[in-house]
Specification:
Layout lengths: L5 H27 L9 H17 L6 H6 L1
Length: about 70
């Protein structure tokens, strides 16, 4: 339904952006605490991870050992 309903697509995108922003802020805090390299791009990493997670969810990809280990 997300592909045919603009309302659903907008809601999914809004939630994806909110999750990505929260993860980016968390990663930035870890970077400032010295736990991540100074040149680590928190926003890019967050968007990449959220994109991968949403892709897995939207395509009903079965969870296997690799995905479980990543999460």
């Amino acid at each position: 339904e997300h592909r045919t309903s603009a309302t659903v697509a907008q809601e999914i995108d809004r939630k994806r952006q909110r999750c990505s922003s929260s993860l980016s802020q968390y990663l930035e805090a870890r970077q400032q605490a010295g736990e991540l390299r100074p040149d680590f791009p928190p926003e890019v990493a967050a968007r990449f991870l959220m994109g991968a997670l949403f892709s897995i969810h939207l395509t009903d990809t079965p969870a296997n050992e690799f995905i479980e280990a990543m999460v």
